[in-house]
Structure formats: C-alpha cells, structure tokens
Request: fold
Amino acid sequence: MSGHSKWANIKYRKATQDAKRGQLFTKLGREIEIAAREGGPDPETNFKLRLAIERAKKANMPKENIERAIRRGAGLEKGYTLEEFFLEGYGPQGVAMMVHVLTDNRNRAVAEVRRVFTRHGGNLGESGCVSWLFEPKGYITISTNDADPEEIAMMAIDAGAEDVQIGDEQVEIYTRVEDFQWVKEALEKQGLKVETAQISLIPKSKVTLDEKGTFQNMHLIEALEELDDVTQVYTNLELTVEMVDKFVAGQAA
Reply:
C-alpha cells in the first residue's frame, strides 16, 4: 500500500471541504448521529462516536451542533431516520470506487450518485463489483514536525501497527481494525499528536494513470463528495501529493 497516496487523497479532500464548511458540518453531524444511534451517546464507551466528535471539533463544528446530533442519534430529539450503506462503481479507465453514503432517502441518494458517475464518464456498478479490491484498516497520521520520523514509526510498530509509511510531512500508520483504538491511544499516551484517525477502506493494489486520466477521476471524486448524502469516496487510484497540488492549483486558476 502506498502511504503517500492515502495522505494525498486526504489533503485534497480537506482543501475542498474547507471551502464548503456548511456542507461539511451536515455530513459530520450525520456521522455523529449514526455513531450515537449504533453505540450509545457516551463517547467514553463509544469509540466510533468519540472519533466522529474529534473530527467535528477539528473542523471547528459548533458545540451545539455536535450535541444536537448526539441527541438525535440517541432518540432524545426528533429528526429524520438515516441509513448508511456503500455504493460501488467505476471511474474513467476502470478506476474502482467505493462510495460511503449516509442519507434519509435511499432512492434519491442512489439516483444522484448514478447521475454523477454517468456525467463524469464512469458507471455505477452492482453490489460486490469492486468491494473485493478493498479491505478495512485503521489509518492514523502523525505530523513529523521536529520529531524523528523513524522513532515515531518504531513507536507505532511497538504499539501494534501493521504497516508504517514515512513521508516528508507525515508518518502514516495502518492497523488491523481490531487494533485501531489501542494503537491510537497508545501513541497519544506517548505524547504524539494524532492528525488523522479513522477506519478506512484501503485498496489491495493501485492503478496509475496519466495526468489526464487522473484528473478525470479526481473531478468525479470531487463531484461525488459534493453530494449531501455522500460522506467519502474510496478509490484504488494512485495519487501523489504533487499531482493533488497541481489539480488544486488548476481548480483555483
């Protein structure tokens, strides 16, 4: 697995979401609501909820929005019923994509995702068509700052990490899902600042395209993640930080 590719994707997503903060708050609120509904409203005993709240706080989501989402998930405040599922499809040149959906209207969400795939040269597939290409992993990033990245990597391995990738700015840590909480908390106890912590779908292998093909797929990913019902898109497209920077620069021009 390529650590740079995963970090590049997160860097790109953050750049686009920062410009759409209201929409981001809606999506984060839905994640909190689902987590509270599934595991209860106490973040001390509900790790998924604690992660969702941490992401919301990092995005500067107002405290009252967070608390309202928890109450809705716990059934203490009236709201719509959310459904969580994945849609699978192919981008241009056969790039595999898994689309994570949180919605109060399944038919609307499926129709909108299908429309975006078609408009950008891809196609929505049947359930199971690409899911076999991905596996769930815990994913953690720690900024190197002035610390020794090799030392951070050794700490992660000692804590139970399955794989570590050292980059220019980040140390990327992959864990088994069942070890994710333990590894994250072990690193934090050693005084390391965790930048990103999430359960992610990691591709078992990557595809590399030329700039044109890569940008076509990035436009598709961007359009999918602009949909209110889509929280995240996972792909087996090989991305580099340099390619992402060039794409973002082109969008801003």
Remarks:
- The mean pLDDT is 87.
- The chain is about 45% helix and 20% strand.
